[in-house]
Structures are given as structure tokens and as C-alpha cells.
Amino acid sequence: MPRARVVSRRTAAPLPRRASLGEPSAVRGRRVAAVKPLRVDAPHPAKAPHTSFDDSEFLRAVEHAKLDAMKELAYGASHEINNPLANIAARAQTLLRTERDEANRRMLTAIHRQAMRAHEMISDLMLFARPPRMQKETTDLTALAARVVGEVRPLAEERGILLDLAPAEREIAAEVDPVQIEVAVTAILINAVEALDSGGEIATAVRFTGEGWAELEVADNGPGIPAEVREHLFDPFFSGREAGRGLGFGLSKCWRIVTEHGGRINVQSAPGRGAVITLRLPGAHPMD
To answer: What is the domain partition of the chain in residue ranges?
Structure first.
């Protein structure tokens, strides 16, 4: 009688969880004091059969593939939706020129306003999917931060929020696209304002950390970022408004701009203890 073969069965080890927030959809479950995000790099080549696959390489490859798919979806959807939206807005504006009835004018104004609002959201999506080519130049980051704080301050004051910029020890410059970095810093500040809603403080600071890096820090004393929101912090299709912090496309847009510059975003937060979001940018140096 032939001998039966014994088949060895190995129990598959569970995938490790990761705590980084530098890329969309960090896995939940691990408590971290300070979150240091990863930069999304090109996926590593596939391993030969029967060789072990490093866990960090696998997670990076998965995140890269997921991000590519998300970017293509965002760009394709944005392009298809943008054209009819522009048509709606243009026709509403044309009708407004000749409409005399006040009720009809209010309805047409609402149509135009909502179409333009949707257009802005689509523009954010397209920026996330395919940012415009960077026009880098030597930029005074301290002056840039002061300009953005000045623009957002009226919004903060409407809600009784104190928005302050700490005096810099020295002026700091970096080789960046000033328009895109302004967009990124504005997104972080507006996110902090929405987190506080009414009352509270937001402290902004710019500093040179040495070795060619500059930091733009935004700290608020709001409700903090819950763990279930933190793991999706930079996802473009996620909104945490019901959790007390408006997200939408603002932070995903910021993440995209900063990583395109070769920078990083660090997040520190705990429920009830506010949040500190720091943009780290390379190519920085003190100004003479």
C-alpha cells in the first residue's frame, strides 16, 4: 500500500500595522506619540519567487499602487465633471443679466454660487491628481507665512479665534514654488480654524532646523484628532467634520504639494490636547 504524503501547512503571519500618517490611509491600532510620515517613493521591483518580501517594502508598494489609482480616478472624474459645471455656471450668469424677478434672481445666483463651489472642489481634486509643474525660486518663508496668516486672520477673528505668528529669530529662505506652498500653508491654517470652530488659539511658527531643512508649524488648542480620523488624515475623499475637524481636500492637497517638494508632514495630536501639524521643507537656509 503506497505511503500517504504529508503536506506541511504553515500559518500565515498577519500583516504588520503601520503608524505613519505621511501617506493616505495609515492602518489603525498602534499608539504613537509623534507621527513621522513616510515619503511615497517608486515601488520596488518584484521579488523573485521563494524570497522573503520586506514588510516595509510591501506596504510602500501597496500604498504607491493605491495612490496611483486614486490619482487617475481623481483626474479622470475631475475632467469629465468640470466641463458641464462650467456650462451650468455660464448659463446661470447669462440668465442673471436679463432676469428682473427677484425670486428668480436669487435662484439663479444660488445655482451659480454652488456651481462655482463645485468647480473649486474639482480644482482641488485635479491639483491632488496632477499638480502643475513647480516653478521653484528662492522664497522668504517667514514673509510667506506672515502673508498667509494675514489672509486667514479675518476668518479666525469672525469665530473668536486668536491666530498668531511667532517672531522668527532670523529670516529663512527655501527653494520652493511660493504659490503652491502658500496653498499648502493656507490649507493647514483653515483646517485648524475649522477644528476650533469658535474660540481658542492657533500659533504659527517658522524656523530653520539645520542641515538644509525648514519647518512651518501650526499648533492649535482644539479638540485634537481622534485616532479613527488620524489614520485617514490625508485621504482626499475623507471628511472628518462629524469628528470635529473639517478635512475634505485641504490636507490631501497640502500633503501632495509638500511631498512633491521632497518634504514631509509631521502630525502630533491627542484627543482633547489640540494638534500640531508641521511642514518640513528641504533646500532651506538662513537669509543674510
So the answer is: 66-129, 137-286
